[in-house]
Write a structure and sequence with these properties.
The protein contains 2 helices and 14 strands. By secondary structure, it is of the alpha+beta class.
């Protein structure tokens, strides 16, 4: 339903006042006519008096304060809804402790591969020496399975000479001395005929050349000799040679790579020479002498 505005309310009041005034005026006129003899002046006066109230009524109507409009009933402020109690924040779940990552196993450092050392020739199984004896000249058939050290001994008074003939009919003079002799020579592997010239008892002993690593160090001896095998420690080295005899003094270095004549003198010798082993893996000394000798590395 629409509410009346204050202005409409005032208009209604004014209209109501006018109706009331008009009613009173009509009633008054009717009363005068009924009573009779009302003169014009009285009527005019009455009219004047009647009009005055009307104006008063109008003024009063105008001055009447406007009925205050019904103030809208304030809507009831809704009771504040109860704020729901905050839900309890769930306690944070305990973060599982991280499992300890196992420490990586240390990778073993690669072992350095040792530089291959020169492998010496395998030491042959010892072979019993062959021994031959006699008292005069003779020819022996001899088979040498490997390089061998030959011992030659004579106790006669005359010439003692031993010749070795190989399969190619080449010959090697092993010894040629007068009277007593004791010394060592060598023969490579092969088949030989030994021609022995002697006037007294003699002895020949054939022994495969064995390993003797001491032969690369200081050596000393008397007369003809064979020393080795040994493995060179360096590629070259200075050696000191001495000889106290009166005849030929010759020293050969015989290796699996080459032969080298180091000394070839007569009589007393005291000298130094460079000995080159090179790439040799095994060597031996071949000494020819008639007196005491020494071979010493520097």
């Amino acid at each position: 339903m629409r509410r009346s505005s204050p202005l409409e309310f005032i208009v209604v009041l004014l209209a109501l006042g006018l109706l009331i005034a008009l009613s009173m005026f009509v009633g008054f006129q009717l009363g005068q006519r009924t009573a009779g003899g009302t003169n014009v002046i009285t009527l005019q006066a009455a009219q004047a008096s009647t009009r005055a109230p009307v104006s008063v009524i109008r003024m009063e109507a105008r001055q009447a304060p406007a009925e205050p409009t019904n103030s809208p009933v304030p809507t009831s402020t809704p009771a504040p809804t109860s704020t729901p109690a905050p839900t309890s924040t769930p306690a944070p779940t305990s973060t599982p402790a991280p499992t300890s990552t196992p420490a990586p196993t240390s990778t073993p450092a690669p072992t350095s591969t040792p530089a291959p050392t020169s492998t010496p020739t395998s030491i042959p199984t010892p072979i019993p020496p062959e021994v031959f004896t006699g008292t005069s000249s003779r020819v022996l058939a001899l088979t040498v399975p490997m390089i061998s050290r030959i011992y030659l001994g004579h106790e006669g008074r005359s010439n003692f000479a031993v010749l070795a003939y190989d399969e190619q009919d080449e010959r090697e003079l092993l010894v040629n001395e007068i009277g007593y002799y004791a010394g060592h020579r060598y023969l490579p592997a092969g088949t030989y005929d030994l021609e022995i010239n002697a006037d007294g008892p003699w002895l020949i002993r054939v022994t495969p050349l064995a390993w003797d690593e001491a032969a690369r160090n200081a050596l000393e001896g008397q007369g003809d000799d064979i020393r080795g095998w040994f493995t060179p420690a360096v590629s070259r080295q200075t050696y000191h040679f001495t000889h106290q005899g009166g005849s030929n003094f010759a020293v050969f270095l015989r290796c699996d790579t080459d032969d080298d004549l180091l000394v070839n003198d007569i009589g007393i010798v005291d000298s130094e020479h460079m000995v080159v082993f090179g790439q040799a893996s095994r060597c031996f000394w071949d000494i020819t002498a008639d007196g005491a000798w020494t071979i010493t590395p520097r």
